[in-house]
Amino acid sequence: MRFSEKNIPGSLNHSLQIKMADEVDDTIFGKIVRKEIPAKFLHEDEQCVVIKDIHPQAPHHFLVVSVKELRKLEDAVETDQQLLGHMMWVATKVAKEEGITNGYRIVINDGADGGQNVYHLHLHVLGGRKMNWPPG
Ligand code: AMP
Question: pTM (2 decimals)?
């Protein structure tokens, strides 16, 4: 059984909870970034890679994934500012390359209430259709 933040029982002692949380630090995106499983990169550099989302929610839907294994945006520290800016920059660059000409939406689902499912920092870039507001 794989454990996630959502199903770690609250009654477990703290050290066991930490161990179980460590077990989920290696996500599918960690394996993709380390090239342990194959993926087509739309962009690759020393700080991030870009892949198409496997379940696209718009005609264009790609993910900018950090190479650094940050579990979520909330875990970023002051020295991650350059990385965060770089990921935004790469999002705009790949959006142009993908021919998204009429705007797009950049989303970070952060933590449980943010709707995050994969605990490895990534930006979603969605385009090719009109987005709704407020989001669900
Ligand atoms: P989030 O809910 O913000 O953590 O987003 C995770 C996203 O990763 C979802 O949109 C999934 O469709 C996407 N995803 C999960 N596994 C893969 C994969 N192997 N390749 C590409 N996208 C994936």
Answer: 0.86
In the chain, what are the domains? Answer: 5-127 (3.30.428.10)
Q: How far is the CA of 15 from the centre of ligand 1 (A)?
A: 29
Pocket, ligand 1, Cβ cutoff 6 A: 28, 51, 53-55, 63, 109, 115-118
Atom of ligand 1 nearest to the CA of 118: 4
Residue-wise over 46-81: b if at least 16 C-beta within 10 A, else e?
eebbbbeeeeeebebbbbbbbbebbbbbeebeeebe
What tens digit of pLDDT does each residue of 26-62 get? 999 999 999 999 999 999 999 999 999 999 999 999 9
